[in-house]
Amino acid sequence: MNKAEQQIAETIETFEQVAGGYDNPSLRFFPFCGDRIGMHLQLKRGQKVLDVATGTGAALITAAQMVGPQGRVQAIDLAENMLDRAEHNLRMNGMDNADFHVMDAGRLDFKSAYFDAVICSFGLFFLPDMLGALKEWHRVLKPGGRLIFTSFTANAFQPQGKLFRDDVEAAGVSIEDPGWQRLNNEEACRNILQEAGFDNIQLLQEQLGYHLNDEKGWWDIVVNSGLRLIYNKLPAEQRDAFQQRHLEKIAELKTDKGIWLDVEVLFSSGQRP
């Protein structure tokens, strides 16, 4: 297994693991972002939409509502537990206008020029070959169809994110730059969209942050999000002590409003000519 294959395997394993807690209220930036994706794309009734790396369906729910019973959303993910949760969430919202597929985002089983829109909420940066995936999404879009993906800026989850990384490294675990840092600025997002063949590129930055009640809310994020990829590298016997030490530092950030969670998000969109 080469490095890219190992990264994919670890990512799948992690997201299978966190699926049950992905809808935790502390992670409500996911549905916040899903709502904004639909608004920015201005999806219309009857359209066909591809939702890449659907997770538990935060963006899917909004897309399905906007395209209505006449439209259809194809939701793909590599984590089956995520797809199960997404399908459950869709039905809990009284809808059934989506299909769910275990599928590689870089090798789609859809015909060319089929979709009116492609959406990807916080998933592109996990893919080893981001450019190859974007070219594939470009292929399945109709001429004039639009793509939108989201990523976190360098400011997102700070200072908590730096404290977490410093504490992990202090525990003797060496970690590479998290994948989500690869698309943390407008230049990187614009360049990769251009290289993939998109035009009419639009970039928008929005703050979707909120206050957590206390340090426990931050821990909910650590163990139920992509940060679990890093946390899992800690030896099991060190995890309880690590959690206690780390949360003592996070607790120091608390004010009378709680602990501010910065969730600065980049919305990057482009159009297939």
What does this entry look like structurally?
- By secondary structure, this protein is α/β, with parallel strands linked by helices.
- The protein has one domain (3-153, 181-211, 262-271): Vaccinia Virus protein VP39 (Rossmann fold).
- 41% of the residues lie in helices and 21% in strands.
- It is built from 10 helices and 9 strands.
- It has helices at 3-18, 29-41, 58-67, 80-92, 130-140, 160-170, 186-195, 215-224, 228-231, 239-251; strands at 48-52, 72-77, 98-102, 115-121, 141-152, 199-207, 210-212, 259-261, 264-271.
- Strands 3-2-1-4-5-9-6 form a 7-stranded mixed sheet, sandwiched between helices. Strands 7-8 form a two-stranded antiparallel sheet.
- Strand 4, helix 5 and strand 5 form a beta-alpha-beta unit.
- Helix 6 runs antiparallel to helix 10 (239-251).
- It starts with a helix and ends with a strand.
- The mean pLDDT is 96.
